[in-house]
Design brief:
By secondary structure, the protein is mainly alpha-helical. The protein has 18 helices and no strands. Helix 8 packs across helix 18, helix 9 crosses helix 14 and helix 9 packs across helix 17.
Length: 460
């Protein structure tokens, strides 16, 4: 990282900065995926020339060029991500014995494919002309802070920054603070919560009532702080390099409905599906029945986007059905319900959904859900949970729950006196600097004493 920053800031004008940052991004990707970098570079070239073709065509030729390019993108994603799932499902349903292909999933393929598709669709819609500089287009796709786990960035969001960026010490400082906060969310909260979550989800047999609820709640915190942590690290690094990446989370566990939850959780993905799938299907303009159909289709696709497994399909269907129920009147009832009850209900629904999302199999998900309602005993903590549930994990759960579940209060009014306002600002800045430095040191200590723990969304 220090070497990358030095190379970048010594590269001169923006054009050369783009070139150096692109090379650094390709090196970053090749470090973990040496062969699959060719897939990503091929995808960039395909979509660069497809964008030019779409931009220069008219009428049916323009639509045909878009359809061909989208088909090519989806075909690449289908081969690497869904071929084994499709063959396995066909074997089960039709009783065949086809050989299930063993294909390694390229890192971040779902994310950079969605970047490419949104770029092509927006060019087709005339929202901006196709970029005729290959380096800029390649950097948009390959920018390493958000390459492998988002947030999903629209081209129009950073188009101007690709051509010209302004760097200041203040922006770099703010970016570093955001990066450190994201790092702390990952290693101090998510990784510690994972120790408790994994006991049930990666264990064998049916857990007790207490074990299942502790693990599910731990995973609820883990996936939030893991993914929000990565997003904050990406946003912070982007700010250092002169890009303003979109916010991806807004305290989703404080939502009072599933509809609100999806406005706050993985915002870049939910808005992508809204703009490129839900609205083109007709959105809510074609009557209630088709609106419900569109919601279910979108969330089944959202589940499949996350993984080629029936557990992800069920997770998407589960959320789609709750969105339909809220359209049918549940949402209005929740709006009249006291905030604490509505938020508690929404959190419960989300937690049950995470069981399908995290479980290694459908049978495992069912066993955990059965344990959550006491079907496998009401006994206390199992031996493994007792051994793992030390004071550190207990503290992490309390801190994580407070950070994730308590809504932000409105900031206090600023003092009118100029001197007092300046002193208040300086004191707040000093306290923030001390807190961020402490988080950095604690994170480094945790990393040095721990084991490798990849981000959850790397596998998507």
């Amino acid at each position: 990282m220090p070497l990358a920053l030095a190379i970048y800031f010594l590269s001169g004008p923006t054009r050369w900065k783009n070139f150096s940052l692109l090379l650094l991004s390709l090196l970053f990707y090749a470090w973990g995926e040496p062969w699959f970098v060719l897939i990503m570079v091929g995808s960039v070239a395909l979509n660069f020339f497809s964008g030019l073709l779409i931009d220069g065509a008219n009428g049916k030729a323009r639509a045909a060029a878009l359809a061909a390019a989208l088909t090519a993108n989806l075909a690449i994603l289908a081969v690497f991500k869904y071929a084994a799932f499709a063959v396995g499902t066909l074997n089960t349903v039709a009783g065949l014995q086809l050989v299930v292909p063993s294909i390694v999933l390229p890192l971040g393929i779902s994310f950079f494919t969605f970047h490419c598709m949104s770029y092509l669709i927006d060019v087709y819609r005339g929202q901006f002309p196709a970029n005729r500089r290959f380096t800029e287009m390649a950097l948009y796709i390959a920018l390493f802070p958000q390459l492998i786990a988002g947030p999903i960035v629209r081209y129009k969001t950073i188009a101007r920054r690709l051509a010209m960026r302004r760097h200041t010490l203040g922006r770099a400082s703010a970016g570093m603070r955001i990066f450190i906060i994201g790092l702390a969310q990952k290693v101090l909260l998510a990784d510690e919560a994972a120790r408790l979550a994994n006991i049930v989800f990666d264990g064998s047999g049916a857990p007790s009532f207490a074990d299942s609820w502790i693990s599910v709640f731990s995973y609820t915190l883990q996936i939030y702080f893991d993914f929000a942590g990565y997003s904050n690290m990406a946003i912070g690094l982007g700010l250092i390099f002169g890009f303003s990446l979109p916010r991806n989370f807004r305290l989703p566990y404080t939502s009072q409905s599933i509809t609100e939850f999806w406005r706050r959780w993985h915002i870049s993905l939910s808005t992508w599906f809204r703009d490129y799938v839900y609205i083109p299907l007709g959105g809510s303009r074609l009557g209630p029945l088709k609106t419900y159909r569109n919601l279910v289709i979108v969330f089944v696709l959202c589940g499949l986007w996350h993984g080629a497994s029936w557990t992800f399909v069920l997770w998407g269907l589960y959320h789609g059905l709750f969105l339909v129920l809220e359209r049918l009147g549940l949402g209005a009832a929740l709006a009249r319900t006291p905030r604490l009850i509505a938020s508690g209900w929404t959190l419960l629904v989300v937690m049950v959904g995470w069981v399908f999302f995290r479980a290694n199999s459908l049978e495992g998900a069912i066993a955990i859900l059965e344990s959550m309602v006491g079907m496998h005993g009401w006994a206390g903590l199992g031996d493994q949970m007792k051994e793992s549930f030390h004071s550190l994990q207990h503290t992490v759960l309390i801190i994580g729950a407070a950070l994730a579940l308590i809504p932000k209060r409105q900031p206090s009014p600023k003092p009118r006196d100029g001197i007092l306002r300046a002193l208040t600002r300086q004191s707040a800045g000093a306290l923030q600097a001390v807190a961020v430095t402490a988080l950095l040191l604690l994170s480094l200590l945790s990393i040095s004493g721990g084991t490798y723990s990849p981000f959850l969304y790397f596998r998507f």
